[in-house]
Amino acid sequence: MGLNTDHERLNRLLGGDDLAWLVQRVRKRMERGETLSTQVRLSEATSGQRSAVQRLLGRSPRPGTTLTVSLPAVDAVLRRSGVCPDGLEAAVTSLTGPVTVRSEEIEREERQWREAFAPLHAAITGRNELSGWYERLHSSGLVRRLAGTPEEATPLLYDLAGVIRALPTSAEPLGHFAARITGSAHALDDDRPLTTLAFSAAVAMAGLADDGSGAQWRREVWAAVGVLRDELSTTVLTLGLPGDTTTATGRALAALREAGQPAVLTLRQLIRDTPTWPVHEQQVSICENPIVVSAAADRLGPASAPLVCTNGQPGAAVMHLLRQLTSATARLRYHGDFDWGGLRIGNVIFGRLPAAPWRFDTAAYEVAVAEHSSHELGDKPARADWDHHLSTTMLRVGRAVEEEHVLDDLIGDLSCSSHHVTRGCDDRSL
Which distant-in-sequence residues (6+ apart) come within 8 Å of 367 by Cβ? Predict the structure, then answer.
């Protein structure tokens, strides 16, 4: 196309500034795949633009400032004059360069995106827990924002498919897992696009609510699919948890329980040497502060019912243990400090686990604040999602009650007779 075009004459005829608007209008129509058998209009045309159109079409001046140009008329001038025998489309291409029809370009790009997603689609086929995640990922545009183009997305999604096929794994350090699957030990570092996508898949795979943040949350999610981050530095303090005889961790727990001593479990132990947890229908209490564990060990020793301590905001080891106990059909109950930080921790526990409040509601607060000395609440109030009246009551009273103030009540609840040590305490209405 355009081999017979007289380029010098074409530039004189259509290439000037006064007709640039016309050439651009035609090019845009060509890019959109629209017909050139139409008219185009220009409002507020300058005298130079009006004169250029008059010379192009050989017509007399017309009044007004609005120009109306027939594209078929321009096409006929170009063909008849021999300036561009192939017509207007060839002329615009000669002046401005090759034109890509956008619909064809869009279809080609969509085909490339489908091809980029193909390995990931194959990896999640048959994985019901990931079907909703995949649909959200595919429709959200996140991959396009992270990768930019199908060419950049192709290796990213290929690696993501490999990660998904390998999960869950069996107690594998994150760097080792990343190197095994992608060839790079740093491929799943926190600042990588692959990590963003793989982490969201891990959340879905583990059946967790995607509502956490921070390093502890990342450890918790990776641990839920068998990938270890800081496997020795994240721990959980316990007392009285029953052990089994089939694992080293279980035997250690059984010995410490018999001795009435607390046990500190690492994330590594919980994942690599998981006890069978003989806690069916048994109540497991959860506290916020280590002082409760220490006091229970001092006062009750081996007669203490099972107790787990979050030690502030629960870390990965805490949450992993509590989920294991939930899977073993233990009944969880939680107590924390009656302050704003305590309410935030309670929201995490009650929001992510099927736990019941343990002396941790409005009625318990009113009793505790009336019976025990306390200090003023700080600023930055928090809402108790499990008991909306608790927050407003605390705000009105303005006093905090920490677990140290109610130790006697908590220790009394944890006391079991020797007859009930192996079966858990009798149920109480608290």
Answer: none
Tens-of-pLDDT digits for all 430 residues of the chain? Answer: 455 778 889 999 998 999 999 999 999 998 888 889 999 999 989 989 999 999 999 887 777 788 899 999 999 999 999 999 999 999 999 999 998 877 777 788 889 999 999 999 999 999 999 999 999 999 999 999 999 999 999 999 999 999 999 999 887 889 999 999 999 999 999 889 999 999 999 999 988 877 778 888 888 899 889 888 876 778 999 999 998 989 999 999 999 999 999 999 998 899 889 999 999 999 999 999 999 999 999 999 999 999 999 999 898 899 999 999 999 999 999 999 999 999 999 999 999 899 999 999 999 999 999 998 778 998 889 999 999 999 999 999 999 999 999 999 999 999 964 334 333 454 433 3
Tokens 């640039």, located at residue: 20
Rounded distance, CA 117 to CA 382, Å?
A: 42
Nearest-5° Cα angle at 257, 252 to 260: 125
Measured CA to CA, the distance from residue 346 to residue 79 in angstroms comes to 80
Q: What are phi and psi of 59, to 5 degrees?
A: -120, 160
Of 69, 2, 71, 67, residue with least CA distance to 36: 71
CA atoms within 13 A on the CB side of 219: 22
Q: Which distant-in-sequence residues (6+ apart) come within 8 Å of 35 by Cβ?
A: 29
Degrees to nearest 5, angle at CA 25 with 19 and 26 = 95
Give the span between the Cα atoms of 89 and 95, in whole angstroms: 10
Cα 130 versus chain centre, distance: 13
b/e per residue 219-234 (b: at least 16 CB within 10 A): bbbbbbbbbbbbbeeb
Q: Tell which residue, 222, 220, 176, has the closest CA to residue 195.
A: 222
* CB 348, CB 313: distance < 8 Å: yes
* DSSP tag of 238: E
The Cβ of residue 355 has, within 10 Å, a number of other Cβ atoms equal to 21
User: Please, what's the b/e burial string for 155-181 (b: 16 or more CB within 10 A of its CB; e: otherwise)?
Assistant: ebbebbbbbbebbebebbbbbebbeeb
